[in-house]
Model the fold of this input.
Amino acid sequence: MYSVAPPANQGLAFASSAKAGGYFPEPQAPYPGQYRPDFNTEEYDRIVDNPFLKALDNPVSTFSIDVDTASYSNLRRYLIESYEMPPKDAVRIEEMLNYFEYDYPAAASVHPVNAHFALSPAPWNSEHLLLRVALSAKEIPTADLSASNLVFLIDSSGSMYDDNKLPLLKRSMRIMAEQLRPQDRVSIVAYAGSAGLVLESTPGSKKEKILAAFDALEAGGSTAGGAGIQLAYRIAKESFISGGNNRVILCTDGDFNVGISSTSELERLIEEKRKDNIYLTVLGFGVGNYKDSRMEILADKGNGNYAYIDTLMEGNKVLGKEIWGNLFAVAKDVKIQIEFNPSTVREYRLIGYENRLLAREDFNDDSKDAGEMGSGQTVTAFYELVPPQAASTGIVSPDPLVFQNTSLIPSDDLAVFRLRYKEPGDGAEESKLVETRLNAALLAKPLSESDEDFRFASAVAEFGMLLRDSPYKGEASWDAVLERARESKGKDVEGYRAEFIKLVEMAIIISEKND
Done:
């Protein structure tokens, strides 16, 4: 039996449950005027968990990094506001992992990105190992950052009327305006029925003028998203700052319905526009008609990142505390490739990053797009490894090759790690390669002796597998996630880890209510 207090500042109401002695919250609007639709048209792309692969047959794993965080704040909205589990396909474990700050050593001066590794038993399967691959990008002091040319592309259609959409966006913009420097420039393009320029390129020193333009926006009309994107890129190109940070920031619920509206058409448009070295960031808002699948793809194709803003606190995180890390790339087209040694790794699987997988040959192909890392950002990924002495996961072996034989080179190493990245420039950059060997004997530690960041991140990954009801969750449990997250909370200056613990507690309540 559980009893819970209302989350702070959410205005939640509680009612007696049919379950004797317990109280469960009834869904309520978290702020006045929020629209609660009678039907749900939210869209999420299907995610199929990465399977285990035999290292002998598939020794190489390649993927693009991802610093998006939208999935975490979106699933938080489901748990805290709607008191229900998020849709399985709304749970992207990599975005949950990368929502949090980790104390990884700063990047060395030679490369803007540094790699770190750790190895411990997998918490949900004691026979398996958990390999953490962590990246940290160099942090550039705000005063030393190049000037930014930011074009805000605002969805002001009728679907943005609710308080958790355009009104929340306006409040978040007040936080953003405080971060602007005199050398930065801001333009605003709004689209609703037809697209229009609301604010010409304006220096960051004129904060009141910028805020007045945001405040004047009103929701109404249909959504001419395609026309708005075309105009925003044109304004960004006209205001282009050579050597600066040129970016379109799309703020929407993703529900385009006029003009260029198909995701494939928008993809092609944005892929073409990124050749001008103008990136695209996407900020998602709202519930009910939210189009997550579309917005994630657009940010990916636009060499940018994707965040979901559900509260003013999240607006403060994305557009206040972390704005320059989110908007200023120090490394682009960042790819990871790991070659596993079949002598020391029988099988492996990458946890998350399902829609970031790359073909092996894509790693050396500089024309293949990959993810960007901003100033001071980190990336965390986990591989679950099956050592030779552990039982097989049941992978069916393919027929042997007729014209080839496989011979192994003796080595005690676990794997070879490779990283490729480009330093942002004119768009014609060549990638640089970082390579290192990983040795299990040097990396391995009992889980109890691993660092706090490893243990906390492993709890986040386990939580994601439970929310997804992953077929690979093993002996994962809500209680194990809760215990490990509590023990590894650390300093938690911003309180994000404490909030995660509350989400796990809420998931426990909801899961027991649904039993």
Remarks:
- The chain has three domains: 1-30, 53-140+330-396+408-514, 143-327.
- Residues 1-36 have pLDDT under 50 and may be disordered.
- The chain has 13 helices and 18 strands.
- The first helix runs from residue 70 to 82.
